[in-house]
Amino acid sequence: MKLTQDYPKIFLYHRFCEPGSTIWGGISQDEFEWHIERVTEKYEVICFAEFLLRKQRQASTRNCAIITVDDGYRDFYQYAYPVLKKSSVPATLFVTSDFIQQRIWLWPDKLKYIVQQLQSGRYSFEFNHDCFEINTLDNASRLASWMRLSNTCIRLPLTKREMLIKSLSESMGIEVPRFPSKDYEACNWNELREMQMNRIEIGSHTLTHPVLSMIPVDEMLKELNDSKVEIEQMLNGQVSTFCYPHGGENDINDAVVKATAEAGYRGAVHGNPPREWNPFLVPRMGADDDRKEFIWRLCGMEYVTARIKALL
Ligand SMILES: [Zn+2]
Fold first, then answer.
1. How many angstroms is it from 283 CA to the middle of ligand 1?
2. For domain 2-103+185-311, which CATH number applies: 3.30.300.20, 3.80.30.20, 3.40.50.1820, 3.20.20.370?
3. Ligand 1 centre from 144 Cα, in Å?
4. For an engineered disulfide with 10, which of 28, 119, 278, 284 has Cβ 3.0 to 4.6 Å away?
5. What distance in angstroms lies between residue 5's CA and the mean position of ligand 1's atoms?
6. Domain segments of the chain: what residues?
7. Pairing of the two strands 200-204 and 130-135
């Protein structure tokens, strides 16, 4: 613990569900409550904006933890926010503003919707000379099939990605509704306003959730600037923090980081391993229902192993 007390324990969540149930890539309310109990036993929980402020003032961030949540799904409001509110624990929610505005689906959800609607069985789907095997015989195979499709889509330019999703929808005979269905919907602005009054910081996660390093510069600037302006207008407050969509090694480059700083944000998070301190490349650790893994990360062991690896 002492070895890593200067490293921020920043956790990343996406989706939540009701107590005792499971969700792909998400965590149930009771497990989340267990996380919050463990975090608050040992750490001071602050929001990301507060963390950046302390760094800027060279104040101590020792033994601080940060809860961050990406995208802005309504299940955060339904299941996680009540847990945080009950214990008066702050968090930072990064929202994709066109999603909140109910203008778009997040594209991985379209794929998930199709895969989840399929009857149990084995299917094959061809796109651009690539053949995808889709197995929906059990939940794990369904999840693996969705991830294969998602991993292909993430590397495609927007128009190609949409073509793939359309083609999958047609060949599987599953029509994707125009707006996200109940399981995939976003918080609305009123819910965000209420949460903002109760220690939830709202940061930006772009307009449409693109891979910023893959889109033209003018679009990248629009994603950074317009989302900030829209959230600020709708919530009548300042948006000072940002989260890179997808956030992997290749999803961000120097131009994206520079443009994020120039857009007026004070810092940004991603999902890569820690490097030297840069407020626009702040690392986070995933959190799911693996309790052992969570405690490992909570103790800062990820940082210890990263430091050891760097020495090798
Ligand atoms: Zn996201």
1. 15
2. 3.20.20.370
3. 19
4. 284
5. 28
6. 2-103+185-311, 107-172
7. unpaired
Q: State how far the Cα of 48 lies from the Cα of 134, in Å rounded to an integer.
A: 39
Place 289 in a pLDDT band, splitting at 50, 70 and 90: confident
Distance 25 CA to ligand 1 centre (A): 12
Contact 282/268 with Cβ under 8 angstroms?
yes
Q: Six-digit token pair at 54?
A: 């302390």
Half-sphere exposure for 165 (CA within 13 Å, toward CB): 25
What would the pLDDT profile of 251-262 be if each residue is shown by its tens digit?
899 999 999 999
pTM of the model: 0.93
Expressed in angstroms and rounded, the spacing between residue 243 Cα and the centre of ligand 1 is 8
Residue in 297, 285, 289, 287 with CA at minimum distance from that of residue 31:
289
Alpha carbon dihedral 300, 41, 270, 29, in 10-degree steps, equals 130
